[in-house]
Amino acid sequence: MESDQPLDAYSRVVSGVAAELTPRVASLRVPQARRGESLGSAVVFTGDGFLLTNAHVVGGGQGGTALFADGTSAPFTVVGSDPLSDLAVVRAGGSTPPPAELGEADKLVVGQLVVAVGSPLGLAGSVTAGVVSAVGRSLPTRGREAGLVEDVIQTDAALNPGNSGGALADANSRVVGINTAVAGVGVGLAVPVNATTRRIISALMRDGRVRRAYLGLISVPAPLPAALRERFGRPSGLRVAEVVPGGPADRAGLRPGDLLITAGGRPVQKAQDLQRLMFGEAIGQPLAITVMRNGALVDVIAEPSERVAA
């Protein structure tokens, strides 16, 4: 191959994303009280110094140092952290590069090209490429608060140690995910950037935390009977597997075996549909829920309480 041969289309896309995002992804060093310091990556996403990273990268730290690809550095403070989404927002005290553009993970399709940009092991400018292997995955949260990060993006783009908090971008250099974990060889996971995570990011910037409502039930997807499939125009609902005694769902009269059809007037087919309703504004407010029980539709009113951190 001639040395002056132009780049093929694939390489042009990847190199273009790398050139666009590498300056906007920082390496974070976060001193920790009990375990030295943690290393990770973060993405500049506003023009006034806010960076997006993983909650497990900042851990219990209050601040640290952000190092950028051009060799500049800036101290930062942790603005807010949400272990249940594995997202955190930090703010640099000095000047930062222009922000990256946030995309929309809900528009991703399996097989689509994605590029991971991070600063593994404190070295800026690591770029790998792959495809979206799957969407809608779940990832157990780390630390004391048990839960699942929903709608996680699975990719075969290699994620190295220290890539956590870095950008997963589409071919147009839009950040569609925040890299969070390596689940095995050829399996990387990223928290999606979508309407739900935008609400989380806004809450972290505004309040430093995310208030969540709590129903006190465990549910799993289940098929709707044929008559209800035709009536509601969808194939599934959520089967209540467990109800926490004394919790809001229990007080509302929900029972194991109930098949949830709607909540708050919206269809529910998967756990994420219910979780999207469980933000701060739902706390203490009546929530209408329709279930199928013993072949009949039953309406109940639940009043979610505030989820208390463990």
What can you see in these coordinates?
- With 310 residues, this protein is mostly beta strands.
- It folds into 3 domains: 9-92, Thrombin, subunit H, CATH 2.40.10.10; 105-193, Thrombin, subunit H (Beta Barrel); 213-306, Roll (Pdz3 Domain), CATH 2.30.42.10.
- It is 15% helix and 41% strand.
- The chain is built from 6 helices and 20 strands.
- A 6-stranded antiparallel beta barrel has the order 1-2-3-6-5-4. A 6-stranded antiparallel beta barrel has the order 7-8-9-12-11-10.
- A hairpin with a 7-residue loop joins strand 7 (113-118) and strand 8.
- The chain is globular.
Mean pLDDT: 89
Supply the CATH superfamily name of the largest domain: PDZ domain
Shape: globular
What about the largest sheet? 6 strands, antiparallel, barrel
Counting helices, strands and paired strands, the structural category is mainly beta
- Report the CATH C-level class of the largest domain: Mainly Beta
Number of strands: 20
Give helix and strand order, one letter per element, not per position: HEEEHEEEEEEEEEHEEHEHEEHEEE
Strand order of the largest sheet: 1-2-3-6-5-4
Q: What is the percent of helical residues?
A: 10-25%
Strand coverage percent = 35-45%
User: Under CATH, the topology of the largest domain is which?
Assistant: Pdz3 Domain
Rg measurement, Å: 21 Å
Summarize the structure in short.
This protein has 310 residues and is mainly beta.
Task: Lay out the secondary structure.
Blueprint: H1 9-21, E1 25-31, E2 37-44, E3 50-53, H2 55-58, E4 63-67, E5 73-82, E6 87-92, E7 113-118, E8 126-140, E9 148-155, E10 167-169, E11 175-184, E12 187-192, H3 195-207, E13 213-214, E14 217-223, H4 226-232, E15 236-243, H5 248-251, E16 259-263, E17 266-267, H6 271-275, E18 287-293, E19 296-302, E20 305-306
